[in-house]
Amino acid sequence: MQIRYHYVKKEEVKYCPADYTVKQAYELLKETGYRCVPVLTVKEKAFAGLIYKVDLLEHYVENKGRDEDSIEGLISDKDAFIFEEDSFIKTFISIRRLPFLAVLNEKKEFSGIITHANIMDVLEDSFGLKTGGHLLTVATKEHKGAIKDLVTAVKGVNIEGLLTLDNGDKYIRRIIVNLSRDTSEENLNRIIKKLEEKDFRVTYVDDAG
């Protein structure tokens, strides 16, 4: 899955030109309420890094900085970017320590940002939470072919999403299955019984919609 359709476009992003002074950058962050914004070069096309409010305040307080100082030395996380064609997995791993990632196009021009909220939207969509359904938490002893056995047990019912937990555990794995919201209670009970006959244990049933 690529992220090109799941980020905030440049037109909707508040950013800081690289030739801003410390005062201009600080006023921008105060006005927007953000703790950090991307910095773009003077032509406002290339990503230069991130500017944090805390670094601006530190410049004023601890370094006795002046309003007219350049922000150049305060720009950080210059590698906090991905490309439109990058995979979702790469994005998911890269964004962990950052408030957001800049998104660049094939010309290495700034196209927008992807946030943690965007990541959550993708996860919710891939797991089928936006369409609702019945969430079954299923526990099983770790064994080869566990997913195949589970899918076989719910054959005939649309699976909106599937998530595995405890990966790497030698003994127990939990699998969360999102079954279509139009699954009747009778059919749901039949599926639970069939799962338990195959040595799966349904530990929790929830409604996602």
UniProtKB/TrEMBL annotation:
PROSITE patterns: CBS. InterPro entries: CBS_dom (IPR000644), CBS_dom_sf (IPR046342), Lmo0553-like (IPR017036). The keyword Cell membrane does not apply. Keywords: CBS domain. This is CBS domain-containing protein. It comes from Metabacillus lacus. It comes from the Bacteria. Residues 8-68 form the CBS domain. The keyword Glycoprotein does not apply.
